[in-house]
Amino acid sequence: MVGDGALGVLLALLLLWLPGLALAEVARDTAPRIGTDVLLLGAATAERTPQRACAADVLARHQQVLAVPAPAAGWSGEPQAVDVFGVLSGEVRISHGDREICGSMQDARTRDSRFRAGVGMVVVPKAGEHEPIVVSWATPLKPHWIPTVQLGAPSPVQQNDTARLLVRAACIAVAIALALSALIGYVTAKDRSFLIFVGVCLLFVLWQAVLGGLSGYPEPWLPVGDHCSWWLVALTAFTEAMLLPVLWRLNGGDRRWPGSRAAQQVVLWALVAVGLCVPWMGLAGLAWWAAALENLFMLGCVVCLVVGLWAVLRRDRYALAGLSALLPWLVMFSADALRAQWLIAYRIEALQLAATWFLMMSAYALNLRLGRLRQQRDELRQLADTDALTGLPNRRAGLRLLAEYLQRARQDEQPLAIGFLDIDLFKDINDQFGHEAGDQVLVAVARQLRDSVRNHDDVIRMGGEEFLVLLPGANRASAFARLESVRQQVQAVTRVLAIPGLEVSASIGLAVMRGEGDDLASLLRRADHAMYCAKRAGRNQVFDAERAAPASDPLSA
User: Fold this and answer.
1) Residues with Cβ < 8 Å from 139, sequence gap 6 or more?
2) In this predicted model, what pLDDT tens digit does every residue of 120-154 receive, in sequence order?
3) Is the dihedral of CA 150, 154, 158, 159 positive or negative?
4) Residue 551 confidence (pLDDT) above 50
5) Count of beta carbons in the 10 Å neighbourhood of residue 75
6) What pLDDT does residue 386 have?
7) CB of 527 within 8 A of CB of 418?
8) Alpha carbons 400 and 404: distance in angstroms, whole number
9) Mean pLDDT lowest for which of 18-32, 37-51, 260-274, 472-486?
10) Band of the pLDDT at 348, cuts 50, 70, 90?
């Protein structure tokens, strides 16, 4: 049967549900009201579509002109979408008849809102008309960085434009996510490499934003303006200053030639100096440095490839991350040499994907580094907390664990017992049989003790021939029985070692936590005192600290 409390809860829920049901019925018969049933943002506007005609000074800089001809039978009369990609600097002009627009990749407000990865326009030529669609732009900084003009029905052209935008935005988002992850890694490991990687990621974010035009979306958030070429060359110099040393390290250059760091510093600061000098360069100097930076990067990648292959042949598995980071760049170099059409059409996206892959491989290498740091830290902690001879936790680790057991026993109101064990006449064993035999006894006793408990960490070597056995959850009677079994297992070491004349036994002092006010020092003191009482009573026995007599009959041992 349902209790009175449960019945009350059910009635309360029913009373809350019925009014809600009634309100829902009323809402179905009521039209949406602004501010209650729907949130309306914005207001009516008289602002015109943000497209602007081309100024005379813009047209004066357009040395490159493409006239897209109509089909032989003339235009069909259907809408035609024109989208222009890969014009990195200056404005693009698209015109047909008396209609023209100019748009800049660095300011989305100047472009048709239906096109975000390129500068586009939709025109509707009259059926049978032959007037071409004219596209013009300024001469590219690099001769082989030619723009791509896409023509077709509005829907597929716009979908392609949206896909390009998603790729560009996703690459930037990945770089930001990797920077945040590295920042968390720095907080965890306190390793400066993670902070350097954060800086590399943020630099790549800026470079990609200018390269893909997202620095002007939805409004300009970088002061690029008409100086996109200057920004690109400067940011390229800065990114190469970071990218080349990282590729060198990923491919094992630092591990094979530790003295190469001086050369890396020279390359880094030389590239930084080039980037800082860019604002004072003319177009001719800018074009020369753009080509020089491209050739330098290609040369650096080839050198890193050779080093990485050599490192892999030398069984340096960490160099695989460096070779993987190089792979997209090498594909792009080959495609560029072959004048591959896909690279011309999707150069910006290819560059961003290659940069993103590089950042991901660098993050992978950083995670490997973090794993190695954690492993080294764990090994050092293990060495610091472990007795070298027996492999048991040492005194420091054992007392820390006992303190945790004490706190848990008080919180859970559970019993806790300990056994303080000392090997009988151990000095005589060393004197008579030698220290090597004494070490064999310690190792054998440690093995027997470890096998006698559920958790191997509950057996501690306190120093010399003294051991501590922790018995969490054991009351006095069960603790005594378990320690008596331990005593017998220690005595069995005599048979295990089979050294003629050697007899191994142990005296054990038992102490049980008394209550809330008992502390670690007093518990250990009572167990230690009980162990000495066991020795005075004849050795080879368990003695209870709370009793005035031995807890077992020494004659039965």
Assistant:
1) 63, 64
2) 999 999 999 999 999 999 888 888 888 999 999 99
3) negative
4) no
5) 20
6) 83
7) yes
8) 6
9) 18-32
10) very high
Q: How big is the chain by its Cα radius of gyration, in Å?
A: 39
The answer to whether the pTM exceeds 0.90 is no
Q: Is the torsion defined by CA of 425, 429, 435, 440 positive or negative?
A: negative
Q: How many CB atoms lie within 10 A of CB 7?
A: 11
Instruction: Tell how strand 416-423 and strand 506-512 pair up.
Output: antiparallel
Q: Which two tokens stand for residue 281?
A: 């360069």
Confirm if 241 and 272 have CB atoms less than 8 A apart: yes
User: What is the Cβ-side half-sphere exposure of residue 487, based on CA atoms within 13 angstroms?
Assistant: 29
Both tokens of 14, joined, read: 């029913």
The structure tokens listed for 351 are 């560059």
Q: How many CB atoms lie within 10 A of CB 52?
A: 16
Furthest-apart CA pair in the chain: how many Å? 121
Kindly state the helix (H) or strand (E) to which residue 201 belongs, with its residue range: helix 192-212
Task: Confirm if 85 and 150 have CB atoms less than 8 A apart.
Answer: yes
Separation of first and last alpha carbons in the chain: 61
pLDDT of residue 7: 47
Residues paired with residue 440 on neighbouring β-strands, in sequence order = none
Task: Give the DSSP letter string of 484-529.
Answer: HHHHHHHHTHHHHH--TT----EEEEEEE--STT--HHHHHHHHHH
Structure token digits, residue 148: 């791509």
Residue range 227-241, pLDDT digits in tens: 899 999 999 999 999
* Cβ pair 139, 229 in contact under 8 A: no
**Torsional sign, CA 521, 524, 528, 529:** positive
Residue 483 CB contacts under 8 Å (≥ 6 apart), including other chains: 419, 469, 471, 508, 510, 542
Q: Strand 506-512 and strand 542-544: pairing?
A: parallel
Q: The tokens of 440 are what?
A: 């064999």
Please give the order of strands across the beta sheet that includes 542-544.
Answer: 459-463, 466-472, 416-423, 506-512, 542-544
Q: Percentage of the chain surpassing pLDDT 70?
A: 90
* CA 305 centroid distance within chain: 25
Q: How many CA atoms lie within 13 A of 389 on its CB side?
A: 18
Residue 49: what pLDDT? Answer: 56
Place of tokens 């409004």: 219
Amino acid found at 291: A
Q: Which two tokens stand for residue 91?
A: 């404005």
CA distances (Å), 187 to each of 1, 179, 183, 262, 409, in order?
A: 56, 13, 6, 28, 34
d(CA 423, CA 553): 18
Contacts of 481 (CB under 8 A, 6+ apart): none
Helix or strand holding residue 339 (H, E): none
Separation CA 511–CA 506 (nearest Å): 16
Q: Which residues contact 499 (CB under 8 A, 6 or more apart)?
A: 433, 437, 440
Tokens standing for residue 455: 């958790």
Q: Model confidence over 164-216: pLDDT tens digits?
A: 999 999 999 999 999 999 998 888 778 888 898 999 999 999 999 999 999 99
Interatomic CA distance for residues 457 and 231, integer angstroms = 61
SS3 (DSSP) at 129: coil
Say yes or no to pLDDT of 29 above 80.
Answer: no
Number of residues in the chain: 557
